[in-house]
Design goal:
By secondary structure, this protein is α/β, with parallel strands linked by helices. About 35% of the residues lie in helices and about 35% in strands. Strands 1, 2, 3, 4, 5, 6 and 7 form a 7-stranded mixed β-sheet that branches.
């Protein structure tokens, strides 16, 4: 499933692309959700954060998937506290929810800063630069 969504951020127009793949393993099934594009900064990203939260909550509501690999390697994210709303929404849908983030560069640095600042670690299992490493560790 690939969904492309155009969003307006102040005077800029951004394209955010979401792609979900299911990965079956011996013991479970995980969701690999790739998010690509330029994330609107600050409160301009609130609407996109709600969309991301509803997507992840919808995925983990189905009890067969409680683990998400969030691949942000092609996302340009700088700031916006609402980005982590997905963790709260997912925990409400599935108490066993766990996730890892795959990111690098400025996006990785920004997310580490946000996670440290927010203390929001519900189900959080780490940030990895390599997708296969993240999949292995969830």
């Amino acid at each position: 499933m690939i969904e492309i969504r155009e969003t307006e951020s102040g005077k800029e127009r951004n394209i955010i692309e979401y792609e979900l793949k299911r990965i079956r393993r011996e013991s479970d099934e995980i969701g690999l959700l790739s998010v690509r594009g330029i994330w609107p900064t600050g409160s301009d990203g609130n609407n996109d954060a709600q969309i991301l939260a509803s997507k992840i909550a919808g995925i983990v509501k189905n009890e067969t998937i409680s683990k998400i690999v969030l691949d942000l390697t092609e996302l340009n994210y700088r700031c916006g506290n609402s980005f982590l709303e997905f963790a709260i929404s997912a925990i409400k849908q599935n108490r066993n929810f766990e996730y890892v983030i795959i990111a690098n560069g400025e996006t990785e640095k920004s997310l580490i800063s946000l996670l440290e600042f927010s203390g929001l670690i519900f189900g959080f299992k780490g940030i990895y630069q390599d997708k296969n490493e993240g999949i292995k560790n969830i």
